[in-house]
Amino acid sequence: MRVTRNARHPFYERCHEVLDEIRQQGRYRTFTPLSRLTDRFPVYEEGMAPPPEGREVVVWSTNDYLGMGVVPEVMEAAVAAVREHGAGAGGTRNIAGSSPLHTELEAELAALHGKEAGLLFVSGYVSNQATLQTILTSMPGWICFSDQMNHASMIAGIKGARGSQTVIFEHNNLADLEEKLAAAPADAPKLIAFESVYSMDGDISDIAGTCALARKYNALTYLDEVHAVGLYGEEGGGVSQRDAVADQVDIIEGTLAKGFGVHGGYVTASAEIIDFLRSTASGFIFTTALPPSVVGAALVSVKKVRAENWRRDAIFERVHAFRQRLRAAGIPFTMTPSHIIPVPVGDAERCKRISARLLREFGHYATPVNYPTVPVGTERLRLTPGPSHTDEMMDDMVRALSVLFREEGIVHTWQPQPEGVG
Known about the structure:
By secondary structure, the chain is α/β, with parallel strands linked by helices. It is built from 14 helices and 14 strands. The protein has a 7-stranded mixed sheet with strand order 4-10-9-8-7-5-6, sandwiched between helices.
């Protein structure tokens, strides 16, 4: 019997249409092949081959803010965990058993944030998505008040909570938040979801003010500290620790992949909330646990970051030094109260072009940030100088930006702004 082949599925054509549209808008994304050099960080090798075939490049866009991913003790802990426990976890913690490493790391993270318990997830994205979705489907009538600029992972969890209601409040606007809280039914279960450091604009939320509103209107608070853990507070517990308000927040979520330089996400909260999530969150229950190497490395990293406050001093000294150089050169940048330095470009194609020329002509890599990560018209380079960026690296980067901004016709529009960081 002859089999007639079906016509090509329309989804294939849809893929082409969407990708063509993305290309036309100048926001088609390509991966830049870079290999981190553990003994030279933040220097990387460009391409697939080592020098002299590959070229050394200074990277300015890493989220390993403190460089903990290349600290010898952290790397050695990963190797030791592989030798002792193997390369993988062998399954979920319910099926394959729960390693003492996981339990110890959860206790360490709970102590970092002053909470009773913690729970590890395979990534920060999953910890946000799974936790918010699980809570917001736990009983009828939930209303989630979500900051306008919340991360995609938080939005995914909130949208995935069928049956709950979402109210979006203006970014970092407590007056708008209160107005919306006051308009909600008094007896409805409420949750306020927000971040401490917003990673694209580098601004910081008013955690104390948000918690005060939560108490007034009987709402739970869910705080994403992903871009703050390790960097702020006496032990790196984030902005909530720095501002001495961590005890006022119900649930604090964080990552092991940025300030701690490894991988994975987590939430910390009261014992009953964590036990509830452990028992009901599908994003935890049905996912293979983090491998021993990751957990072992993260455990050492968290302990070192908590104990070594000089690392936080070092990053903010470097941030200040880099801003001074940008200011002296007249290069426009957004002054923020955090460690993140946005350099506005304002056009997707030009942003990509400047990034490409920085790499090709000057040996510096800065990721172009375009829509949908940021709104159209606000495209920028997002720079994150760290403790290992030397004065020489900074001087060379500023010279490169000066040349490119002049050639690209970007007006130096920086105006004096109040200093404030950390």
